[in-house]
Structure formats: structure tokens, C-alpha cells
Prior knowledge:
- The chain has 347 residues and is mostly helical.
- It folds into three domains: 64-158, no CATH class; 167-276; 292-347, no CATH class.
- Helices cover 60% and strands 0% of the residues.
- It has 16 helices and no strands.
- The radius of gyration is 35 Å and the shape is elongated.
Amino acid sequence: MKAGKMKVKPHQHKNTVSRLLIFGGPLLAFFVFVLVILFFPQEKNQGPEFDESSEQAQHYEKVIKPTAGEVRSPVLKSEDRAESISLGKFEGDIVARPTIAQVQTFEQKLAAIRALGYTLSPEEIDAVFDLLNTSYRPELGVTAMQWDSLKNEALNQLTKQVEFPEDIYEQLAAVWSNRQLSDPSREYAVQFYVLFLERAIREKSFTEDDLQFISTTLTNSKLQGTALLGLGHLVDDFPGLLESVELNQAAREVISGRTSPRVRSAAIQTLIRIGDASELTQIADIAVNSRDTVERLSAIAALGELGGDNEIQTIIQIQNSDAPLFANAAQVARNKIFSRLDANQAF
């Protein structure tokens, strides 16, 4: 090799380039970032653009802008809340709370209902009952099932109120008495009536006058199944309920009358709940001959809960049937009867 000349190996070039990229790349990126900040400053979000004379602009200036930067939904006064409109997200996710009637889609209406507080204004309560009493029609922008679902959610919000809305029982009775409404929405009114009764009993604010409306549902073929099941669950908390609404009599009439298997099943379960064995002959016939699975299983369960020696033969007959579902239910019923008989003999 001649003096003064040095050959550079190819891999040494690659190492030099790699070092430049590793150490120089971040510095170059930082330099570009500083230039962007200095020469292209970001404009602050000034909020949505409205026509200054519009209702949206006035609402924004009055309610939304003063709370800008707070990441929460503002608590509006009832009059503001009743007039609020859906403005979208801006200024720290502050969103005006819309009323049920002011939004169109199912999701928006559901969100508006769930946004209701625990102390509703009279206007908001009226809006809820307007919803409950409105029959479904396609121009509402939702399906019939969604409309019923919204009503169920609205009733659920009413149960969360600090105080009962005034005339709540009468209002719910008006809903289930309205034959223009769908069967599910009328049944919801009955179910939630019972929930209000349960809360009133728990809070010791219950009076027998509160039962004056619910008793009418026990003779309504569309509603009596729901009413029987609901009221049957209140018997333990309020024994006087039996006499007040003649629950026993209503259940007996359902079992011996012409009605749907669903309602008859509810009546059987009610008799189990209140310990009424007066209809065991009818129930035994249902346990053997019914073609409805739920009704037949309810009847077999009733034989086990309420029956005695006279029902053993019927249960054995069911056990010998070809259907394992009913045979297994009959075995459970038979065991319950024997356990009860053994306990009685021990005394």
C-alpha cells in the first residue's frame, strides 16, 4: 500500500450514514416542528358558527359558552332544559340536553330519556306521559318495537324520581286503559304500577286507595296475567293485598275460565305464591293435558307446592310419560310432596 492513501471499506460508508440518520433525524424533526409553531400558529376554537339572531346562537351564548372548558354536561334550569336543542359536540364536549320531542332517531330519543334527572319539572313529567300515551306511527322515525322500548325506558326513569310524580297511579291507569296503544306498552304500565306500589310499601307511604286502579286489570283479558304476577309478588310485604283486590278470586276465575295459556300460567304461579290450593283439580288436569310447555310446567310445579296424597297418582302418571322435561319436573314435585308429608307426620 502506498503512503498517503487509505482505502475505505464499503461497510464503513454504511456505518457513517446510519449514525447520521440515528442522531440527525430527531434533531431535524424537532427543528421543523419549531418552525411550524412559530410561523403557523393554531387558531383557538371559537365555537360553532351560527346566525347571530338564531335560537341556536342565543342558546349558545346563554347556556353553553359560559361553561366552555368544563368537561361535563351543564345542569340547566328546567325552563332552559325544556327549550334546549341538540347542538352537537364542541368546547370541551359540552352538549345541551335535548328534550324527547326535539330529537328524531331512536338513539337520540333514548339518550334524551336517560339524561333526565331525579327531580323532573312538571313540563318534563308531562313530556314523559305524552310519550307513554302516544300510539306508534311510522312518521315517528322509529320501529314499533323501538317505540315500545322507549316507553319502557321512560317508565324506568320515573321510578328513579326522588318523589313520586303527582297522580302517578291515575296516569299509569290511563295508559293501560288506552286501547289505541300496543299491548306491550299497556303491560309496561301495569308492571311499573306494581313497582311504584312496592316502593310505597317499602317507604310506608302506601294506602289502600293506591289499589283502586290496579284491581281493574285483574278482569282485563289483555292485562290480567301481568297484574296477577306482579301483585302476587307483593303478598309477602302486604298481606292485606289479598282481600283488597280479591287476588285469590281473580286467579281462580282465570284458571277455570277461557283464556290464553300465558295468562293461565300466571294465575297458577300466583296461587303458588299465595298458597291457595283450592283449584288443584283444575291444575292437575292442566298438568296432564295442556299442550303449552310453560303452562304445563307451572301446573306440575303447583302440584308439588300445593298438593298432597291426592295428587301423587297424577304426578306418577306424568313421570311415566315419554317427555323427559315433564317427567323430571314431576319427580321434583313428587319429592316436595313426600318431604312435606314426612314433615307433617313428624309433628
